[in-house]
Fold these 2 entries.
Entry 1:
Amino acid sequence: MINVAVLTLSDKGSKGQRQDKSGPLISEMLKGVGEVKYYDILPDERDLIKNKLLEYADKVDLILTTGGTGLSPRDVTPDVTLEIIDREIPGIAETMRMEGLKKTRRSMLSRAVAGVKGQCLIINLPGSPTAVKENLEVILDVIAHAIEKIKGDPTECARQ
Ligand SMILES: Nc1ncnc2c1ncn2[C@@H]1O[C@H](COP(=O)(O)OP(=O)(O)OP(=O)(O)O)[C@@H](O)[C@H]1O
Ligand SMILES: Nc1nc2c(c(=O)[nH]1)N[C@H]1C(S)=C(S)[C@@H](COP(=O)(O)O)O[C@H]1N2
């Protein structure tokens, strides 16, 4: 089973001013795919996010973040993610934005990124529960294979 950490980035959520629905939704959607071992809510603060991502990356196979991917001045999740990853996986974020366009034109406003830190896959999701559902459902089936490859699975990946 894949070990997962979920990190919600929200100023309001971290102050208890809004119930976090997106973090629990991620956990729900991951049933059968992975087990959520860690979950936290942080404000949109670079250093706090960076330290938490680095801590989780040593402990789990997959980190899913939600929130802070947009254009508000305090949205920094993709910027911090890019700072710490070793390699980017553009196709994951491209797929989320492309499939999202079928639901809302605002899909193009998410700056979400995905990448690898050590042996951990990190994927940013936007903040609203609707966006989490629509983004995660279009990449969910590829996550297990991506993690196998990150961990060095030598089997050939091509379809026969
Ligand atoms: N973690 C969450 N749980 C529930 N609803 C959320 C969450 N994050 C965002 N939303 C919903 O999506 C809308 C847009 O998200 P956005 O990230 O812009 O919110 P925000 O209010 O700017 O976040 P912040 O808490 O960082 O100020 C919010 O107004 C809220 O309705
Ligand atoms: N599929 C999908 N993608 C989506 C959305 C959505 O509702 N559905 N919301 C968009 C909106 S309105 C914004 S502003 C950006 C960034 O969201 P965030 O700042 O909450 O991370 O994600 C976008 N991506």
Note: The chain has a mean pLDDT of 97.
Entry 2:
Amino acid sequence: MEQKLHVSSEVGTLRKLMIHSPDEGIGKVIPTKAQEWLFEDIIHVETMRSKEYDLYIKLLLYFLDYEKIHQQISDADHPENKRNFYKPDKEEYFLSDKVIEPQYLLSEILDMRDVRNRLVASICAYEETSYHTQEELLEIPSKILARTLISGIMPDGSMIFPPIPNFIFTRDIGIMINDHILLNKPAKAARARESILAKYIFHNHPMFATYKDNIIEVNEPKDFFLLDNEELSKSRITLEGGDIMTIAPNHLLVGVSERTSLHAASMLVQIMHERNVVEKVTVIRIPAKRAYMHIDTTFTQVKRNLWVMFGSFSKQGMEQEQRGFIRSLVGEQNSDHLEILQYVKGEDYNTPKRFTYLEDLLDDISQNDLHSTEPTEFIYSGDNQFPYGRREQWTDSCNVLAIKEGVVIGYDRNDKTSEGFRKKGMTVIDAAELLDKFDREELHPDQVENTLILLPSAELSRARGGSHCMSMPLFRDPLIG
Ligand SMILES: NC(=[NH2+])NCCC[C@H](N)C(=O)O
């Protein structure tokens, strides 16, 4: 039951991760609520699942848990089986210890009487349900109750609390930093129930028992609420996983963004150093905008020396956007500017190292932290052509998940960015075609190298999150010895 958990890079071979399949709750969002719940539009849940997300699961199972999927793949998608293979509350669920569903872990902790009582009470208090509803919930069998606590839907189909449609973005609820687990503190109310569930799972599931003392929660000081409203908003701590990247064993990246506050980043630097989790913490301050709510929507890593990034944050892009302006006049006033500050343990926090451009930082990571022997290269969103760079960043061109070094999953709609991958010598292939090759044993996942795998994304991309956001890596092989 107990498993080793460790993540010390973004591209070491992925062995274990947490993902959540779109649940029924997503299908209940009405148009006027979509934005409040952080979706750009309503989605068709059946398409999102069977034409898009299920392919993601199959890919992950093929790469991480070959036996689980290979024999069962034809049965899994047989219409008669009603997708039960993908549903954690069904007998036929694939139940892998490598591709892990928080809903399943939740059902396991709900079997513990004391945890069940406390968790149901917490959720009911947060959602302001009646005492009667709380009692009713306590009588529901664990597997069904786990489903209800996530989707908000009771076994009889009635809805007792709002959906948490963003739970598919498991990245944001917690992050492994070496052998530590950092829990989030979401900026948006729409994501609050997710973090209550995550807290209970990480603190109570036997899978994380060895790591209990390594769970980090960042909170405001005890007397914080006594401050006046202005001070209060300045010192508020919010922190979401999309802004945290364990980029190398000695190095953590922290974004300051629409979602992660300056105060949170400041606390994190100190905690990381005090607890000896990493030696270097680099804070990347990006504009607080919906289009790039976390740093992982603006860049992710493909290989130790290859990155995909948003062109407007590149050296060329930033210079271009400032052309015609007097730099000193624009300077700090420019809300779109990027600030990169690096804090090293034992060195003076008042004189951090500064990087002017994102490429300088990423190059430094590739060469000095990850010991690349080749020059660092960049693929730009939309191949750096206007207006494609911005269009494709919006649909997560910069948000890829590395399954191993050089093999990443991205969305199929970002054509110009895919072109950029091809120009760097990468193979670009549709998920369905690759799965078909695996199925017919024409190709084994171990043989796949230097490839961008394209996931259908018409529905998925409406929520402003890509495959990087839809994954919480729990174990990656070390990239460097
Ligand atoms: N790591 C990420 N970039 N996650 C994207 C989350 C998208 C989600 N709809 C939200 O707004 O919260």
Note: The mean pLDDT is 95.
